[in-house]
Inverse folding.
């Protein structure tokens, strides 16, 4: 089945005059950024270029019971790092794979912040329990005062209003406001095809709306038909980049063909 992309010319000035539409749902996959972890803007990956595009191939998603999508907490650090690295850097072997995971954990621990006037969060899709209490005999592992939840984070997504990958506004190249950006959407390989990515993206849309954003955007690899169809089904439309324009986009391997997509909330 061939995917037909609907190309729209969004007014990227996105003034309040734009008519808001009712909205109808993250990693790598579509949106890929190497300093990758929503909660970590200050820690870039140890090396290499990520295999962008997203790991979402859910053309006919099956409902996955017991899924809760919420904001990530410190206890989720290791599972988020594991999900992210196994999706974006599947070819790395020991010890580099372990170093990448520690890099992501450190990024989350020290990256729960955003530039002044901006917001940033990491959303996780949790299977079974959502954590919170750490009692003896649980599946949580303690490392000093840090607890790590084992084996229940199924998907992750980063959402922010930093506008790093949005075209700048006007001759002074001001940062655009009111537009949330999705990146680093990843779902564990063994759990793909169950509608998890769609649930996480839907939560991101709701979160962006609660922040007062009027639109949400992302970059999607055109080679990843599953991700493309997921976003099209959620109401995202391709935005045509003006000829000669040099809009910012995530770092990725040479074979990635990024498509900038946006949805009005």
């Amino acid at each position: 089945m061939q995917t037909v992309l609907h190309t729209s010319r969004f007014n990227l000035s996105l003034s309040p005059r734009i008519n808001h539409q009712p909205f109808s749902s993250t990693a790598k996959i579509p949106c890929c950024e190497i300093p990758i972890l929503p909660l970590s803007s200050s820690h870039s990956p140890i090396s290499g270029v990520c295999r962008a595009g997203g790991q979402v191939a859910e053309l006919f998603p099956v409902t996955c019971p017991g899924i809760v999508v919420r904001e990530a907490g410190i206890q989720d650090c290791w599972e988020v790092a594991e999900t992210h690295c196994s999706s974006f850097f599947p070819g790395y072997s020991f010890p580099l794979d372990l170093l990448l995971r520690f890099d992501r954990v450190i990024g989350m621990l020290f990256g729960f912040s955003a530039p002044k006037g901006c917001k940033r969060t990491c959303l996780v899709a949790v299977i079974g329990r959502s954590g919170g209490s750490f009692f003896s005999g649980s599946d949580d592992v303690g490392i000093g005062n840090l607890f790590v939840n084992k084996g229940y984070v199924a998907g992750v997504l980063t959402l922010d209003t930093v506008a790093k990958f949005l075209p700048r506004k006007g001759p002074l190249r001001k940062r655009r406001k009111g537009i949330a950006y999705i990146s680093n959407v990843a779902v564990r390989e063994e759990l793909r095809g169950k509608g998890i990515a769609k649930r996480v993206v839907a939560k991101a849309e709701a979160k962006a709306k609660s922040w007062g954003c009027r639109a949400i955007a992302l970059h999607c690899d055109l080679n990843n038909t599953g991700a493309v169809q997921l976003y099209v089904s959620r109401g995202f439309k391709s935005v045509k980049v003006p000829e000669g324009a040099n809009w910012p986009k995530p770092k990725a391997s040479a074979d990635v063909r990024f498509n900038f997509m946006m949805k009005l909330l």
User: Anything to note?
Assistant: Residues 7-264 form a domain with the Aminopeptidase fold (CATH 3.40.630.30). Residues 221 and 257 are 5 Å apart (CA to CA). Helices lie at 77-88, 96-109, 196-210, 225-233.
